[in-house]
Amino acid sequence: MRLSRRTASVSLAVALVLTLAYEAVPLARVPADERESADPFGAACRIRVTGSKVTAYCHNPYPETDRVSLHVECVRWWDIDTDSAPVEAGPAQTVRLTGRCWKEVGDVWISHRRES
Hints:
CATH topology of the domain at 41-114: Immunoglobulin-like
CATH architecture of the domain at 41-114: Sandwich
Helix content: 10-25%
Low-confidence stretches: 21-28
Order of helices and strands: HEEEEEEE
Mean pLDDT: 81
Number of helices: 1
Distance between the termini: 75 Å
Radius of gyration: 25 Å
Largest sheet: 4 strands, antiparallel
CATH class of the domain at 41-114: Mainly Beta
Strand content: 35-45%
């Protein structure tokens, strides 16, 4: 009987500590300059992986040119990862980017840069 009371009090103490620790964690705040700016930027991209080939279509609905690059990371250690040259997606323009691996594709992403 004594063991179960001890177990119950330890469980209650752990639950109390976890609850207090959860409430003490500060919430992440985004600085005002990192919030969504008044001038929206960035092309919307759709990525399709078919076997070892990658195709991305990026459409820029904004008036500022977006320089987009396709990055392909392959699964196999001997397969070469690729980064495409930046392609300018002008206002109301859609661009197509392609890449591939010899075998399986591991990860794919698009990077965006403002025209300088």
